[in-house]
Design brief:
Elements lengths: L10 E6 L4 H16 L8 E6 L5 H15 L7 H8 L2 E5 L8 H7 L5 E6 L6 H10 L8 E4 L7 H12 L7 E3 L7 H11 L13 E9 L8 H5 L2 H19 L8 H14 L8 E6 L10 H4 L10 E6 L11 E6 L6 E8 L17 E7 L3 E9 L8 E9 H5 L9 H11 L8 H21 L4 E3 L7 H8 L11
Parallel strand pairs: 1-2, 1-4, 2-3, 4-5, 5-6, 7-10, 8-15
Antiparallel strand pairs: 7-11, 8-9, 9-10, 11-12, 12-13, 13-14
Helix pairs in contact: 1-2, 1-13, 6-14, 9-10, 9-14, 10-14
Bound molecules: NADP nicotinamide-adenine-dinucleotide phosphate.
Length: about 475
Amino acid sequence: MVSRVIPVDSFDLVVFGGTGDLARRKILPGLFRRFLAGQMPEDARIIGAARAEMDDAGFRALVAEAIGEFGGPASRKADELARFLDRLHYVAIDAKGDGGWPALAQAMRPDVVRAFYFSVAPALFGDLAERLHRHGIATPESRIVVEKPFGRDLASACALNATLAEHFTEHQIYRIDHYLGKETVQNLMAVRFANILFEPLWNARHVDHVQITVAETVGVDGRGSYYDKSGAMRDMVQNHLMQLLCLIAMEPPYRFDPDAVRDEKLKVIHALEPVRPEDIVRGQYRGAGKGTKGSYTDDAENRDSRTESYVALKVNIANWRWKGTPFYLRTGKKLRARASEIAIVFKEVPHSIFGEEEGWRENVLSIRLQPNEGMTLSVMIKEPGPGGMRLTEVPLDMSFADALGEDGTDIPDAYERLIMDVIRGNQTLFMRGDEVEAAWAWTDPIIAGWETRGDKPRGYDPGSSGPEDALMLLHRDGRRWREIRE
Ligand code: NAP
């Protein structure tokens, strides 16, 4: 099946921090792929902005190199790449000074969508917002895109929201959580709300529990000092895992409309119970050999660090739909495999007419976010052959790469999709300010509890599934984590 590409309106997209790591790895290669897909109008333009002095040619060379390195097979299309680079421009600008701003003001065209991607440190968001207004560059229809981390606690998130609100309305602010741009995550909503099959079973009466796993094989190398001030709870749970939990747990919105969807997600966050200390396990990876070489404390260059590189927790939702069905969340670095999965584990049938069958399993709907985005529903069937009525589990497999694209390259990356949504003015897959604040309000007491108790994370071996204690979190409820595998 060839996916349908609907071109967007013409735009001027300014990427502040256009020479930085995120722009080079994700934003610019993603825009090139959308260009190849035919989604970009002929006269759409991308304007890089940062302090470094360079001209358009210098910026185009930098982007060509980034696409060569991070653009995958698409980067080999030389003619198309040259045509794409023609749309790129550059303005040298300091967010904290006034140089360069008049040139940017002059470069912007009237009558096209204006979008400003803040791919810079959050400390600069206020300066950018203020200068965009002072120099008359932002219009009431302009959009700004802001990156994570959106605050490090409730107070800083509120302050950041207040700063942006001085110059932009909520409908102009696009807070990116790239997990929401993944094909599977959106398909989760389609599966739930476009089929009659699942919704009647989607509640505590039929779902035993839910597991959300985001496992990485990499450590914090290179970003150690940044990560050490954050940790898995702030870096992953408060945003990505929380968003996934909301999409699974939310009530059907009355319409697939940005505020209707976000209202329902917000209700879920409000319904989260405080997490008890015994329902959380924090971990920190050890070194592979003797001593601390390669350990978290070595990578973070902080021998006494108590920051977690792994966290697992049991979350309860206090509402009619989910009371009694726990959601187990875990995420960590240097684990056995790079794998992200949501597993909806259904209850067993109330009575087995086949007696005590060996190998009996409950139905599981597994939603894989990476690698191989797709969904699998495990069902019990009769084992083929004349051996009597023996049951076996088989997967009903739907790999999106097989079903929708030739080899998966048709599936847009999360960043590509989200940037096109910004140009279209569709905020459904972006976090609203009150959602972010509610998520911090739930997260803050958990972190404060660790700090007052002086909790130390448990050690775990690189390449393992995390600390032993995390296994106990489920064992004690008579359940098991699903295997972490690619
Ligand atoms: P980075 O590699 O350090 O790049 C920062 C960019 O900002 C550079 O282009 C830099 O160029 C520019 N810049 C710095 N100070 C500036 C100023 N005063 N005025 C104008 N431009 C300035 O950072 P990054 O990794 O790309 O991250 C950018 C943002 O995305 C951060 O908020 C980060 O938390 C977030 N993020 C990044 C990733 C990632 O994978 N990298 C993932 C998620 C979120 P000059 O020095 O020439 O000015």
